[in-house]
Structures are given as structure tokens and as C-alpha cells.
Amino acid sequence: MRTIRIGSRESRLAVVQSELVQRYLQEQGIDAPIITMKTTGDKILDRTLDQVGGKGLFVKELDAALLDGRSDISVHSLKDVPAEENPRLPLIGYSDREDPRDVLVLPEGETKLNEKLPIGCSSRRRVLQAQKLYPRMGFRSVRGNVLTRLKKLDDGEYSALILAAAGLKRLGLADRISRYFTTEEIIPCAGQGVLALQGRKGFDCAILNGYVNKESEIVVKCERSFIRAVGGECSSPVAAHAVIQEGELFLRAMYSKGTGEMGYVTGERKGPVHDPSGVAKALAQQLMEQFEQEKG
Ligand SMILES: NCc1[nH]cc(CCC(=O)O)c1CC(=O)O
């Protein structure tokens, strides 16, 4: 029997996500043990993501395991994978997209926001967009995995959290969702809701063809091309969300410089499904010029 060892972060969400791939491989008659590892990003919890050096800290250990042969594929939340990819460790496929929206979560038993407490979210992308929806609310960063954040919320540290619907749904916690934000109210992070499979260059990944979703690949490549084109990463408030509508690619995105003190601009663009990076680069250029005109 062929064995494919799955490298995974050790959070409950990461393991649940890896089990989705494991189950598919087992159904194909493949032995697919999950090898969990704590990443540097998971260990540093007293600083925000941009202070700890960005998303690369959430994949470094998994990449090392692939390179030294302790694992054969990694399963990632794509939104946590740096936009600049390592050609020796290509992304080899993408899952069906879970709900891409951001959501508001209130403390257990609460039905409205306590204006005396901040809303917890670490992403500048979320803060800037949510401030427009909740102009009277304060915001404070929150680190840790989803379950850790929910405990901080229920312990009274925050009036609410802004989280990804996808993580809560995969954890079986959809009932904690108090409000769904439309992808216009809060443009999601590039790749939000999609799992990325990563392997060593040359890895025979044909067995995964029945799992991966080619439409997901098109839309997330468009989203990540936008992030690369504007030079964005975790600290800069950038967002991109693409869908395929009536055979056309539709991209909505947000751009700001620095950490967003100057505000941000948003825009949309349609284009051919076969040219996701072309659509992304055109919107990136448009928004960078618009930002300089309006905020520069
Ligand atoms: N870094 C946090 C993270 N990475 C992936 C998800 C959710 C799952 C996904 O978007 O696929 C989350 C939780 C959140 O943003 O609320």
C-alpha cells in the first residue's frame, strides 16, 4: 500500500483540515498518517503577525519536513501561505472553497455588542473594513488559534470577534456565528476558505486529482496574484476575493499602503477566466493609482 504522510500544524482546525485530505486518500486505498508540528508562528503569541515576521512563520517547519522527507505533502489554510511561493515546494492543488465570508461572533449567551469592550481581530484588513460598519467600537488584536480566541471572548476580554466562517464551520461551531458579513462589507483575505496542498517538486500528485478543485485554483491564483502585484502581505491591509460568474472572472479587492492609517481604496474588475493574473494585475495597477490620487 502506498503511504503519503501529511504534514500539518497542530491546531484543532489544522488537524480537522488535514483529516479532510486524509479521508480522501484513505478512500483511494492510500495510507495517510498525519504528522503534526508546532510552527514558530504558533509559539509566538504575544505579538501581532506583522511583528513576528509574517505568514512564513506558519509554514517554516512544515516546509522543512517536506524538504527532509519527514512528510510528503502539507495541508495548509491557503490564507496562511505567503504569496511568494517556494519553487522547490509548489502548491499542487486546492480544495473546494468553504464559505469565504468573515463573520461576527458574540460571547456565549450575548445578543448585542458591549460598547465598553473592544472587538477582537488581528488583521488590519478586518479592522479597517469593520470600523466602517462599527464606527463607535474599539478594536484590539487577538492572537492564538480559533479555539483560544473563542475562550478569550467568552472570558469577557472582547465584545466580539471577527473570524472566518470557514474555520468555525470546519470546527463544527457554525452556531457561534452571530452575523455574516457580505464579501462587499468585508472583502475576505486572499485564499480564505480554501485549503492548499503542497509537495516537493516532482511529487507524483495524480492521486489528488479527484480531490482538488480547478475553479478554486483559478480564483485563488487571481487573488494571490493581486496580493503579489501590490506587494502586500500580512501587515498591509490588502484583500482580494474572486468568483467565476457566468463564465467570467470577477475580482473585488482592497488596497492600502503601510498599515492603513491613510485609509484604503476598493475596486472590482471582470476578465477572462483563462487570465487570472492579468485581471489581478490590472486591478492592482488601478487601485494603486487610485490610492495615490485620493490618499497620496
Ligand atoms: N490564521 C487564522 C486562520 N487561518 C485560516 C482560517 C480559517 C480557515 C480558512 O480561511 O480556510 C483562520 C481563522 C480565521 O481567520 O478566523
Automatic annotation (TrEMBL):
Free-text remark on how the cofactor is bound: Binds 1 dipyrromethane group covalently.
Enzyme Commission number, as recorded: 2.5.1.61
Cofactor(s) needed for function: dipyrromethane
Statement: the UniProt record of this protein carries the keyword Transferase: yes
Keyword Transferase (UniProt): yes
Span of domain Porphobilinogen deaminase C-terminal: 220-288
Recorded catalytic activity of this chain's protein: 4 porphobilinogen + H2O = hydroxymethylbilane + 4 NH4(+)
Residue numbers bearing the S-(dipyrrolylmethanemethyl)cysteine modification: C234
Lineage: superkingdom: Bacteria
UniProt-recorded Gene Ontology molecular function terms: hydroxymethylbilane synthase activity
Pfam families reported for this sequence: Porphobil_deam, Porphobil_deamC
Record key words, sorted: Porphyrin biosynthesis, Transferase
Domain Porphobilinogen deaminase N-terminal as annotated: residue spans: 4-202
Enzyme class: transferase
Free-text function comment from the UniProt entry: Tetrapolymerization of the monopyrrole PBG into the hydroxymethylbilane pre-uroporphyrinogen in several discrete steps.
Family note: Belongs to the HMBS family.
Quaternary structure (record): Monomer.
NCBIfam families to which the protein is assigned, alphabetical: hemC
More details: The porphobilinogen subunits are added to the dipyrromethane group.
Name by which UniProt lists this protein: Porphobilinogen deaminase
Organism: Jutongia huaianensis
